[in-house]
Structure formats: structure tokens, C-alpha cells
Amino acid sequence: MSDIDDRLSSIQACIVAAAARAGRRPGDVQLVAVSKTHPPESILAALDAGQTLFGESRVQEARAKIPLLPSRARWHFVGHLQKNKIRHALSLGFELFHGIDSLDLARDLNRIADEIGATAHILLEVNVAGESTKFGFQPDPLRAQMEELQTLRRLTIDGLMCLPPSVVRADDARKYFAALRELRDRLQTDGSGPLPELSMGMSGDYPVAIEEGATLVRIGTALFGARSGKTWRPAAEPGGEE
Fold it and tell me: What residue ranges define each of the domains in the chain, with the CATH number in brackets?
């Protein structure tokens, strides 16, 4: 077995154990293998090990990689979507956009999707800790903005996403995951429709996120190893950041 096989097996076992602790079914939690900065060869190894759902956070990198990989690979966009990259992102066939972080961005995504005859499934990113350095809807204003968000006919809101503050212990993130789940529950009670997906938890804290209701966990380093920090590009192209 390769390192990726071993790591994937370990992650899957952790998902099963965390779901059991919460009285949940393991099948209700999807692993999104975050492959940013990692080469197609690593993604192919994960595919061969049985992982089919991957997450990219840079449109330019995704445009370079996706055509090189088998069609059985499925893709989510998990990063901050820049407005000038929306058109390209929609053309890549992402099943889900995790980080729609403002009403303006949602409006632009809906407008461009309408122009090209596309649709998009999205998650609304919530700044659960109110950090000034992070993107995301603030929880209370989001409740008021949902009415307009639901009129954007090219978008389907599948749930919420968060990126909590860095913590020393994984359990210290629990309150933020619980806050996102509780906000989702209030939105559903308010009549915002079903919001089944909660994207929360990464390599260092995903078992806690699962215990608090995560349906999507975004795991990169624990599966692929340390990132290079640079956007992956084909060998024929010069290096550099997007």
C-alpha cells in the first residue's frame, strides 16, 4: 500500500469512530480531499485508493488539473471565489461551491450563471467567530439576507460552511462547529428551507466537527502531506502564485 492508501484508511476509520460517538451513520459524512498545491499524480493515487471527491481552492490550478484526471473524479470548490474567476469556475463543473461568503458574491455568481445558462449548488460561508481577517456572512445579518439569497434562481443553497479560528486543541473548535449547526437549525426553523450540508472540520479537528454534525469534512494535509505553498502548474509553465 502507498502512503496515501494508509492515510486514507486511517481517516476513514476516524470518520467511522467519530460518527459512532455522535450516534450518526458514517455514510452521512463525506470526505472532501483538498488537493490544492498537490500534483495530479497524488490525486490519481487517492482515486486508485477509492477516494473520488476532491476540493480545489484556486480556479487557475483547478483549470490545469481537472482535464488531466479521470472523469470519475468529482470536484468541489472550497476556497474564496474571486469575482473575476466566476465564469471560469462555472465552466469547470464543480458540484458544490463551499465558500460563498457575501450577498454581493452570490448575486454575481447568479448573474453570470444566468448569462451562460449554468446553475450552481452553494454553501454559505459563515464567520462564526466574527474575525475581521476572514471572509463570511455574519450570523445575525445572514438570517435577514436569506430571503434575497433564496430568490437567486440559478443558485441552490445546500447548507453552511465555516472556517473557525486556529486553536491549540481540536476540542477548542467545538463551540464554533456547534454554533454553525445551531445557526443552520434556526434558519430552517425560520423557513429558509432544508439546509442539509454542514462543511466544517479539517485535518486537525475533523473528528470534533463530525461529532457536532459535519456532513462534509475538508481534509488535505492528513491525506496528501504538507503543502508546497505554491500553486501547482504543469511542468511546461513557469512557476508562481495565481
Answer: 3-224 (3.20.20.10)
